[in-house]
Amino acid sequence: MTSQTNPVLLDGKTLAAKIRGELKDRSIKLQKEKGKRPVLATILVGADPASATYVKMKGKACESCEMDSKKVELPDTTTTEQLLAVIDELNADDTIDGILLQHPVPSQIDERLCFDRILPEKDVDGVTTVGFGRISFGLPAYASCTPAGIMRLLAEYNIPLQGKRAVVVGRSAILGRPLAALLLEANATVTVCHSRTTNLPDVVREGDLVFACVGKPNFIKGDWLKEGVVLVDAGYNEGNVGDADYESCYPKSSFITPVPGGVGPMTIAMLLSHTVAEAERKVSAR
């Protein structure tokens, strides 16, 4: 890939709006033809302001796509057993197409146990170990929404992956690891870096595509990158700052995601997309 004076901005905000328009049409069609309205259930445990804001955003996004959202709000004293019982109820409710358990939950709750209680077919947020295992084996499942959104964004701009060197910086369970699995399935050669990686800048410099998934503001520097790199910044930190130092990385890139407006909008778009897809699948299976 050759470097450009002005890299192409990977505009997730515009693409997400396009996807939402398509989802609205699909949802309306589903209601007219099958009498089914897609429903996403969101579970919020406690009163964390950021989590409450995210859940509210997801509810409004559902409305914009002619979908319903069922909000379940639980006190911060909720136990693991109580949360599991709520998830069981939603699993058994045939009107619910997708379940989202907002992260993080209070410390007394076994979060992984609760995530894995969600039925795989209702795991539209891509958080279960079963879903991750299926993705890793190239089998059908709903991938974690941010990695899924990144892949959709790359596809929209026709960025080739086959045979390319992809470097993922970060190995979290819902971002770095599933993203690496999706890139591997797309026939990229994938390196996953983490806190124990030695000579990190040299490793990053090998990437035709670099994915910043580390959760540290301005962590990746421009002199770590090869000329013409595709840089995808999945970070979002205080002050609208990503995980890559945008100012120094911009001149090195052929494609780059802005922060905000790059990866972020794609995450919710994929959550809605998975929910509509599950509603369609459920109706067609009857």
TrEMBL record:
Listed Gene3D superfamilies: Leucine Dehydrogenase, chain A, domain 1, NAD(P)-binding Rossmann-like Domain
Matching InterPro entries: Aminoacid_DH-like_N_sf, NAD(P)-bd_dom_sf, THF_DH/CycHdrlase, THF_DH/CycHdrlase_cat_dom, THF_DH/CycHdrlase_CS, THF_DH/CycHdrlase_NAD-bd_dom
Function recorded in the entry: Catalyzes the oxidation of 5,10-methylenetetrahydrofolate to 5,10-methenyltetrahydrofolate and then the hydrolysis of 5,10-methenyltetrahydrofolate to 10-formyltetrahydrofolate.
Ranges for domain Tetrahydrofolate dehydrogenase/cyclohydrolase NAD(P)-binding: 144-282
Entry GO MF terms: methenyltetrahydrofolate cyclohydrolase activity; methylenetetrahydrofolate dehydrogenase (NADP+) activity
Domain Tetrahydrofolate dehydrogenase/cyclohydrolase catalytic residues, every copy: 10-125
Family per record: Belongs to the tetrahydrofolate dehydrogenase/cyclohydrolase family.
Entry superkingdom: Bacteria
Pfam families on file: THF_DHG_CYH, THF_DHG_CYH_C
UniProt catalytic activity: (6R)-5,10-methenyltetrahydrofolate + H2O = (6R)-10-formyltetrahydrofolate + H(+); (6R)-5,10-methylene-5,6,7,8-tetrahydrofolate + NADP(+) = (6R)-5,10-methenyltetrahydrofolate + NADPH
One of the GO biological process terms: purine nucleotide biosynthetic process
GO cellular component labels: cytosol
Subunit structure: Homodimer.
Name of this chain's protein: Bifunctional protein FolD
EC number: 1.5.1.5, 3.5.4.9
Residues annotated to bind NADP(+): 170-172
Family matches, as PANTHER family: C-1-TETRAHYDROFOLATE SYNTHASE, CYTOPLASMIC (PTHR48099:SF5), C-1-TETRAHYDROFOLATE SYNTHASE, CYTOPLASMIC-RELATED (PTHR48099)
Keyword Isomerase applies: no
This protein's pathway: One-carbon metabolism; tetrahydrofolate interconversion
Keywords for this protein: Amino-acid biosynthesis, Histidine biosynthesis, Hydrolase, Methionine biosynthesis, Multifunctional enzyme, NADP, One-carbon metabolism, Oxidoreductase, Purine biosynthesis
